[in-house]
Amino acid sequence: MSHQLHGFGSEMDMGTTHNIAGSGRRLEFRAEFKQAAWIHQEAYFRIVVPGMYVPSFLPLSLQILGKRSSDNMLKEPFHLTNIRVDLLEFSCVPSKYTEATDIRSKVLFEKETSMEINSLNSKLMIPPTMYDCVIPQVGPTFFIGGFTRTYGLKITLSICNKRVPRFNVSAFIELHVAQKRYERIHEQEIYNPLWHFLGCNKDEMARGQDHFMKRKPLFPYPSYPFGEENIPLSIRVSLNGNTQFYQSREGSYDGIASPGMELNKFVRCTFIVAQGFKEASQYRQVDDIEFCLEQIKITLEEEKLEDDELSSKEIPLLDDRKSRFIRWSEFKDAVAGSELARAMTSELEDSRSDEPHSSISGPLESVNVQGGSSKERVPPSSACDRNSANPTEEDMLGFESGKNKPTGGDHGTFPGVPKADNSLSNQESSTEASKSNENDTARNNPKSPYDEEMYLQILRSDDPVWDFLHHRAIRLEEKGDDMTDMEVSELDFLRGIDNDLRWGRFLGGENPGQIFLRSQFYRDILDTRIRHLINVSWSEDEVLQKLDPVQFYLIWRSKKQSREKLWAEHWGVDPETTVHVADLDDVIRNLPQRETARVLKRNDRAHDCCNKLLTRLLESDEILYEPEIRYLERLLEKSKPSRLWSILPPAALAINAAGFFGSMKNYVLRAIQFTPAATLFGMLRHND
Known about the structure:
This protein has 19 helices and 26 strands. Strands 3, 5, 6, 8, 9 and 10 form a 6-stranded mixed sheet that branches. Strands 11-12-26-25-18-19 form a 6-stranded mixed sheet. By secondary structure, it is of the alpha+beta class. Residues 189-220, 246-253, 350-448, 595-599 and 638-688 have low confidence and may be disordered.
């Protein structure tokens, strides 16, 4: 909502500044969100529930800024005469070619008042009684399938002075409205304090240090203010995407680990500041402050419930007391959702647990990262059929001698797909030199996965990822009701990526081959030769997409058209809604070499081809063409089409960056302790 109304980065700016004419002074109005202690949320989420008292989470302040002098009293004070609070509801409903947005407002509070502002360079807090209102009973914020509903508060003040005409200042803050649901539990029914299960934030003060403790079933995201401007520093503990088990999902709060696994394989610690040093330095002189990370301690917490008695046990996994200094300027990684925030990841090196968990009896038993021991064993067979993925030595000798031959498959040959030097299908030349080494490695190592049939099917494919997804899905479908639960999940995963590839949902984003190989499950069961083909393919695709997105798109289009003909029955292709261009391959062969997106200005034939495709896609009744249509529109907006199929470039969004950083003192990050059971402990000390 903030981006739609005020541009990217506006969610960081919760106030306005008004220049007072003829005085060289300016009036600053600020709103600051204070999160409720009983709501666990990340920075800038701003979660509220209906019925919450607005002044309890939104303090308002006024400040008149000017040159400092011995007398900071205004000779002619300003007066606050009116205050108004509006609740805005922003909704967005997508249609086939555009989206409909609607903004509704409701006045929560409006009052004529009289408040004198007579001090200079000092912050004046507006009393809560002047904007006494609550969040009404409204529906929750949601984002689903392109449908959006979110809320915001707009506070408007009227200010007047004898010499200055009446003027208004306002502040806007976006909110996420949640529904409050709870379940009443009798304390005598559980065997540990309630906070251990429900989660709470507990703050204590001790010996001049900021002492904090976070215990939450989910991984915590605490935030601590620094400096006079209270710039937040957040510590994020999350699961790493490079997990060794198929059940572990990137971005989830649940994972599986095994004895001996390195912590940095599934746990990641990230430090985030609300504004990077480089971004803050653009507006004013700031000091490059330094943090000292003195200790990282990770413990594994085990809980057992036996004979109605709950027992807990903590096992230290890592106690790193090597002091390391972190400068503000070292926060350089981008943070999703904020143009100004920057992050830095702390590596957990040499953090292997040498001793297995006491409750683990074998290498196949898994441990839940959140602390509870899982008695469910990892199945010895993965989603791939181990009998076919790992053949016996007799089978391997049969393959080498030619006695056993692979059955089925069209060996990955697709008529009509361009094979010119400028296509994405140059894996042949790049893999021939290493083919003998790959084959030797696979055959001489009986323990490595070896799938000759699948390898031959995608050896000469123009897109090994796409063909592997297709042939692997057919293998699983042929099993029918004999599939295991893991194979059913794998089939859903394969169909999802295959569907995204077909409809162009990866265009302009992360390469599907990279997403596919990120899964540790497939990296463990894939034939090394197949993995090599996929790795080379997505690397070339990634380079081409950056250098020449037009050529990348046309080649992907050619692959899609050829596969819609070959796999028409499997995909259920509808000829009436299918969009094909007959001379697409010839257009690709005649594209200029090593061109960027400027090719649309120089090559009239490629430009016409893209316009024809866009026109036919818009005329089609298939809603699934929307990702491809959006990508084509982005390509065509870089040129000025002069033919029948011209389109209007979308209006560019203005990017508003607000710099806020005052002078900051040095702080020391005293200690951090966090556990896979989601316990985060530490202290912050201010060096005067």
